[in-house]
Amino acid sequence: MRLDPGNSWFEPVNAHPGAWESDAGGESFGRLWRAFMTARVTIASVLLALQASIYALGQPLREGMILLCVAYFAATLAVRVWAHPKPAGSTFDAQWVSTVGVDVLAFSALNFLQSGSINYTALFALPVLLASVLGPILLAMGTAASVTLLLLADAWWVSLQNMGESTARFLQAGLSGSGFFVVALLANQLALRLSREQRRAASSQSIARMQTQVNELVIDTLVDGVLVVDTNGIVRAANPASRRLLTTQGLVRNAPFMLAAEAAWQPLVELAQLTFQRGALQQADINLEQPTRRARRLHVRTRLAASRDGSEENLCVMFLEDLREMEARVRTEKMAAMGRMSAAVAHEIRNPLAAIVQANALLEEDLQDAGHRQLTGMVTQNAQRLARIVEEILNISRVQEQAPQGQTQALFLDGAVQKICSDWAQQNTSGHRLAVRQDSAQATVLFEPEHLRRLLVNLLDNAMRYASATAGAIQVSTELPASNQARLSVWSDGQPLEKTVQSHLFEPFFSSESRSSGLGLYICRELCERHGALIGYQRTTQNAVEGNEFFVIFRLASADAPLAPSLFDIQPA
How far is residue 484 CA from its own chain's centroid? Predict the structure, then answer.
């Protein structure tokens, strides 16, 4: 039968030079070493006390015995206080000479100098155990052999003086030596097995810690909120998404905390209690009513982490998902289907639209009346606009690449923004709320005029929806933040947007308003990407007033870029 070296008691001598050689931290070896050193000091103290007792009983003492006990006590105390633990090699190094060697010599001297019936042979077990437990098998066997030879030498010396006791002394020495060999072997194997188990435990703990760290990283990056609740309603763990969903009055709670601490969280408390009572998973759509903001709608699923043997407390794991985000994903899927349908419809519109334009052109050739010509001009103008819309829908549905930069027209940013803002304020009678500041030094940017109008009008309509009625509630500004960039900003003094809304601002069909289509900001993003611009959102302060700012970073046009027609010639969208 072949033995597994990892589980066998008896292994090759060279398999493990020392039980504690691979002890990374040295903590286990240090504890055992200090225990043995303390035992040596204790035995030395007992030997001194024994000599004092013999003297107190009136027995004669040899000065050599007293000096030997005192010297041994001083040596053991010095090693215990000043020496540092160090695993033994395969030979007697300096540290092990001062421990195992001193013990063997001291106890041999005690046997040689003894007077009376006191037998010190049992003391040799200490150096044998020390070498066996803390050293390799070679050191353990060498110590046992040394002790056996010393015992046999002592028996031979006694036999020279008294021939009658030679047989008994040799027999006792042989039996004691055999016992020390057995003790050395078993103790060394026990130490090896203990060391192996400790290394396995340390490896398992390291793997468990790494797995725990990986689980925490995965949970922390989950979009869904995760709560771990015990039977007392205390939240043991909460990932960032759950803390964001449970935020009340701007206060973010870190675990542990009481789930019943907030009245708005009462539906979660009831769902957790129901999970513990029924011992089965639960799911429900709940509303977290908060006094400072609208109710947050959540879809909650619970799982029960039950202890198999009942030795540990059961835990309820709750998964929180924002229903608004779920609905946004559904709208995104619908948008993909609508995009495919829009492409098909746009293809079908192009042919009859071309026929309308042709028929209108033929009709206009035969018309003499100015009023009739004005009507055909309106048909032509709206047909052209409809053709542009069809082409844009086709471009978005095909997810085509942006046109080459050289084909994009350039326009003066300040003049275009001033014209668009003026037309918008006149149409919406909001001139008192709008303030325009131009500081782009007549920079030209790469953007189509009609697309810029649509972009800015969408941002202004969005700002007007949330801004107050005070003067300067909406501010539009231009500037040059870098040598090759121009920046357009639309700021309003509206309330801060929720985190869930911010993460989906530029997605299609996502809006915090029930009557909004959610396509305005999406179209703005598409137009910016088409022209190599960047659009973003941030919460900023203007004139000591906090508000929402949407900004667009444009690419500056080169000197030879073709200029677009003036916006004064373009009709408002």
Answer: 38
Round the CA-based radius of gyration of the chain to a whole number and report it.
Answer: 45
Q: Is position 347 within any domain?
A: yes
∠ CA 211-214-219, nearest 5°, is 125
| Claim to verify: residue 284 and residue 311 sit in the same structural domain | yes
Does the predicted TM-score (pTM) go above 0.90?
Answer: no
411 in the same domain as 369: no
pLDDT at 26: 62
Q: How far is CA 552 from the centre of its chain?
A: 33
Q: Domain end: 204, 234, 252, which one?
A: 204
**Per-residue b or e along 416-426, where b marks 16 or more CB atoms closer than 10 Å to that residue's CB:** bbbbbbebbbe
C-beta separation of 572 from 456 below 8 A? no
Sheet holding 534-542, edge to edge: 434-439, 474-482, 485-492, 545-555, 534-542
Nearest 5°: the CA angle 435, 440, 445 is: 110
Residue 479 and residue 466 share a domain: yes
Domain presence at residue 5: no
Per-residue model confidence as pLDDT tens digits over 510-540? 555 544 545 678 778 888 888 888 999 888 8
pLDDT digits 0-9 by tens, 170-183: 888 888 888 888 88
User: What's the half-sphere exposure (Cβ side, CA atoms, 13 Å) at 7?
Assistant: 3
Alpha helices in 312-412 (DSSP H): 323-366, 370-398
* pLDDT tens string 417-453: 999 999 888 888 877 888 999 888 788 888 888 888 8
Distances in Å between the alpha carbon of 194 and those of 15, 26, 28, 379? 15, 14, 10, 94
Helix (H) or strand (E) holding 537: strand 534-542
> 237 and 274: one domain?
yes
Domains held by the chain: number? 4
Where does residue 98 rank: exposed (0-12), middle (13-18), buried (19+ CB within 10 A)?
A: middle
Q: In terms of residue numbers, what domain contains 72? A: 27-204
Domain-embedded: residue 140: yes
- Residue 551 confidence class, pLDDT cut points 50, 70, 90: very high
Residue 339 lies in a domain: yes
Give the angle subtended at the CA of 78 by the CAs of 75 and 81, to the nearest 5°: 150
322 with 337, same domain?
no
Q: What is the pLDDT of residues 464-488, one digit of tens each?
A: 888 888 888 899 999 988 778 899 9
